[in-house]
Amino acid sequence: MTSAPRIRSDVDLATHTTLALPGKAARFASITRPDELEALARSAERRFVLGGGSNVVLTGDFPGLILHMAIRGRALASEDADAWYVRAGAGEPWHDFVQWTLAQGWPGLENLSLIPGTVGAAPVQNIGAYGLEVGERLHCVSAIDMRNGQVCRFDRDACRLGYRDSRFKQEGWHLDASMVITEVVFRLPKRWTALTRYADIGAELDARKVALPTPAEIADAVSAVRRRKLADPAVLANAGSFFQNPIVDAEQAGRLLATHLGMPHYPQGDGRCKLAAGWLIEQSGWKGRWLGSVGMYEKQALVLVNRGGARGEDVLTLMRAVQNDVRQCFGVALNPEPVFI
To answer: So which residues are the signal peptide here (predicted)?
Structure first.
């Protein structure tokens, strides 16, 4: 038996998003159980799924229904000789979930510590940091098809994961809430290997005089590095890393490296090369630079911040200015990470 959630009207969304831009939802429902989604299925009303609000840019009022994901719960689903299979509700705060898995003695997600957002959003964006993408630990995803109310299950391959990409984005499901994730199961390998090859993490561990780090020590190092580089949304409104690291073909990478010595670059398995968007933005003169109430953070050029009073159009103006200057300087296109509604 399905149960409809309570729906509120004219809800302020600024307090539900970390960039704190003005905007109201015509209707707003906090979803605490999957059956509440089933009760709202088949409607032609425009919908959008909101988790922690850390990857959203409000461009004004939203005329439809916001589905605020609040499904909680976390548990060991099963285990075998090779891995623990850990289940979490889509509304679980991501960092809290990572910390909990480590406390249970199930490592594997420590490099993704302190990433904002919820568990349900993690596979949509295929979040990643410091040598790990969540897709490498994903086992399966459960979701409700809002077009017919059916429960669907996607294994890792069916999610079609890529760099900051997934089937949920490719099919546009994240934009119209036609498929809403309710639960995620992660596969955490029992043969754990420390991932410390990123210079920032290695340097942090060296400073702590940790030669053979435990998963918890890596999580602490990752969190320390992120706190130094990234603005706390509770202090300075922001949406985290605003642009994706661009991936270019080998020929373009070769030209850029020949003319820009010291450019950070990361060869990919398919022959292409990933570039550091933050470095490109800084070299283009945007680190710590403002346009009105919005700017690129002085400690990390990849982060767009709002010092108060900004609107969605201000963010769009700054985004386009940064994109234009990076294109002019390097011939590289930057794509934003957040969703615009």
So the answer is: none
Q: Note down the domain range covering 47.
A: 7-69
Beta strands in the chain (DSSP E): 7-12, 24-31, 47-50, 56-57, 62-69, 74-79, 83-89, 128-129, 132-133, 138-145, 150-155, 179-189, 237-241, 247-248, 265-267, 273-275, 290-291, 294-296, 303-306, 339-340
Q: Are 138 and 119 in contact (CB under 8 A)?
A: no
Given the structure tokens 């995803």, which residue do they identify? 141
- Do residues 64 and 45 touch, judged by C-beta distance below 8 A? yes
* Domain match, 181 and 277 both: no
Contacts with 254 (C-beta within 8 Å, 6 or more apart), sequence order: none
Residues 73, 100: Cα–Cα separation, whole Å: 12
- In total, how many domains does the chain have? 4
Q: Which two tokens stand for residue 99?
A: 């910390």
- Active site members: 164, 241, 337
List, for residues 51-109, the tens digit of each pLDDT value. Answer: 999 899 999 999 999 999 999 999 999 999 999 999 999 999 999 999 999 999 999 99
Q: Is the pLDDT of residue 14 over 60?
A: yes
The answer as to whether 1 is a domain residue is no
The answer to whether 34 touches 3, Cβ cutoff 8 Å, is: no
- The answer to whether residues 212 and 116 belong to one domain is no
Mean pLDDT of 115-134: 94
